[in-house]
Amino acid sequence: MASSDARCRHAASGPSLPGLRNGDACGVDEHLKDACRDQGQATGSASPGDHNHCSDPSTEFPCGPHTALSSNGAPLENGLHDKHRKSVEAHEQRGKVFRPRSSLLDEMLLVNHIRTIYHIFLAVLLLMAVASLILDILRHGRLLPDISFVISCFGKLHLVALTWGAMFVATLLVPYGALHAWARAWSLLLPRRGARPGAELRGRARPGAELRGWALARSSPLLAGTLSAACALPYVAFVLLVLGVLPVWVSVAHVLPPASRFILILEQVRFVMKAHAFVRDNVPRVALSVHPQGPNWSLPSISQYLYYLFCPSLIYRDSYPRNTSIRWDYVRTKLAEMACIFVYGHFIFQCLVVPLFQDVQREPLTLERLVLYVCHAMVPGTLLFIITFFAFLHCWLNLFGELMRFADRMFYKDWWNSRSFANYYRTWNVVVHDWLYTYFYGDLIRVFSRRHRRAAMLIVFIFSAIVHEYVFTVCFGLFCPVMLFLFICFGMVLNFLLHDGRSNDVWNIFMWFALILGQGVLVTLYSLEWSALRHCPSKPETVWEFITPQFWSCYASR
């Protein structure tokens, strides 16, 4: 517990990255401080809340970041110099600390006052269903609801399943195989006298054995770089071709509908983030363990990597805190809630969005009409925003968390109480934020030093905006850089200007004002562009014609 105590003293004294304020664009310190508060209640023993041990009694793997283990699960400490061990431990101890905890909404819904809001949303859903049924009877004389819109959005699912299967198999085999091949090639530079080939990878090499290849590894960086490049080429080709080109080609060449494209592209992004995290966290484990006393590491097993691919976390760990059983009632509840949300989204589009823009081509598009469109789209846009959050970040992730017995359910925080956009971006999607902070922002800080913290935040914002716009462009089959514009011109500016430390409720009102307005703008402009591509079809001949939105030239001249 000595190293844990040191970490707690460090967390109490200040943030883990120099130059960061408490609570500033990072999640690491908050997790660490939460874990340290738990540790103070159980000093000297492992409890279910202790961040160093799993809640699952069937496993002995530490839940902390990257403790090297031998084949029998014992820590590999022998043979490490004290100085080198400190450098390895410093690498292993950075990052998010996982511990058992429930999702915030699960806890809030136990309160009757909050559960009443949940009931109100269900009542509105029931009213929409009854209104839709009555209209179908009066207009078409049928009792069954029209689900042609849903079917059209989720078409060609067999192609989606086949493409997803290819991406999954490649993500499972290529990064794992490339990492093990590189580790084995790296260990060949350091053969042990009297040790069998490959013994280092199995953790069976005798500690303290003399080395013949240490001088070669230190004096021949070209050879080491050549071996690394040879093992990295299959991984890079896999990322570019299988994860990069394949889903986009299937979406465009087979003209997949929007919802089917969203499944493929979001899974593409998830697989890329998972593969990068796995390689990024395990390469230093091998590289930092190459020292004069010999390579001393234990690479993850295929079962550990397979669990990581399905667990609701983008941060790689050899093991995570686990629940002892699956609550099947909870699983059924989340499935039912997701089904209701699909119906909710269908009614919102059919009752509020489609009627708003179905006659847009009959009159010229003026600035006045554009403002009216934005005002009328705020309500359905905000409803779609809320149910999307509830469906994905609460229901979907908790569903997989329960099926995988994943105990840390902090997928989001109380973003609705945010009084600054900096806090909103940290708490809206904790899963993606942790990945961006750990593998993007943190690495930028290490490369360019702590003095360039704001520049690193700017790069992260631009990267996130580009990825969001990429998803919308491929899934909708159009380029209307609304998301990119809102992210960079408003979100990034407000993030830097409206920083933490504001306690007045006015700033929470302003945040919701900006969010609701932004949803209205998103729904309006993407709907207008979608409609323009169907009423004014054209084949762009230049890059400028492709990236220029067509709705204004299509409707303003009428």
In words, what does this structure look like?
This protein is mainly alpha-helical. It folds into two domains: 54-85 and 147-322, no CATH class; 117-135 and 342-555, no CATH class. It has helices spanning 2-13, 28-41, 82-93, 104-108, 112-140, 148-153, 157-188, 214-219, 221-253, 258-287, 302-310, 328-357, 367-403, 421-428, 430-448, 453-476, 482-497, 505-535, 543-547, 551-555. α7 packs antiparallel against α9 (221-253). It is globular. The N and C termini lie far apart (73 Å). 32% of the residues are buried.
Describe the sheet with the most strands. Answer: none
- Helix content percent band: 55-70%
Structural class: mainly alpha
The number of helical runs is 20
* Unreliable segments of 5+ consecutive residues: 1-93, 191-219
Question: How many domains, as an integer?
Answer: 2
Tally of strands: 0
* Molecular shape: globular
Ordered list of secondary-structure elements with their pairings:
Elements: H1 2-13, H2 28-41, H3 82-93, H4 104-108, H5 112-140, H6 148-153, H7 157-188, H8 214-219, H9 221-253, H10 258-287, H11 302-310, H12 328-357, H13 367-403, H14 421-428, H15 430-448, H16 453-476, H17 482-497, H18 505-535, H19 543-547, H20 551-555
Helix pairs in contact: 1-2, 5-12, 7-9, 7-10, 9-10, 10-16, 12-13, 13-18, 14-17, 15-16, 16-17
Notable characteristics:
558 residues, mainly alpha, 2 domains, 20 helices, globular, disordered N terminus
